[in-house]
Amino acid sequence: MNNYFYKIAKFDIDQSLLYNEWFHVATKHDMFDKTIKFIENDDGMEVYNHKLVYKIYHRLRINYPSSMSSDMDPVMIQGYNSHVEYIGYSIDNIIDDFKGSYTEKIARQVHDYLLEKYPALYITSIKYHSISPKSSLTLHVDNSTIPRFFLSASVPEGCYMQINDEKIPMHETGALFRMMCKVLHNPINESEDYRVSMIFDVAYR
After folding, report:
1. What tens digit of pLDDT does each residue of 157-181 get?
2. Residue 191 CB: number of other CB atoms within 10 A?
3. How far is 130 from 114, CA to CA, in rounded Å?
4. Do 167 and 121 touch, CB atoms closer than 8 A?
5. Strand order in the sheet with 175-180
6. Residue 98 near residue 62 (C-beta atoms within 8 A)
7. pTM here?
8. Beta 147-154 vs 175-180: how paired, if at all?
9. Spatial CA neighbour of 81 closest among 53, 63, 99, 59
């Protein structure tokens, strides 16, 4: 087992419910077109190294920091409004679109599990990450020494996390992975559908 990306738990989830809620909120807020249009129409801003890559990578907030409001646009666009603050987040600050939803129920279950398992950490941003069918990013290293946690919400067979030269399957429904991002890695989706994960960012107390 590698020390950078590995399963730590499994949750009993209904992946179709999570997928449907994710897709409903994503389309309500025009997430897919909004991301593409921003990338194609940026006004010379030095935002992306690989613009074509990020057209297939989407983020949707589930909770929000206290500096924002519950009715904010949940669509996060890399390099524009994707900065993650590490203060003011709470599991009780749920975006309006997800309040009382199955998404919130599962987010709370994972949130409580992580706090019990890792008492030195607290949860900051919770969001959906999705990758388009037949797509991948590129091998890259994130500038962070803090772990990140991935719940396989709706992940078809053919989806992997590449760590250096190793491809680790992610398609087990409800699997929760711990990742250290300061290593060469690349999410890969070789399937015919979206790869949807729920991401839990953390910080040290």
Report:
1. 999 999 999 999 999 999 999 999 8
2. 17
3. 22
4. no
5. 5-10, 175-180, 147-154, 195-204, 121-131, 57-61, 75-76
6. yes
7. 0.89
8. antiparallel
9. 59
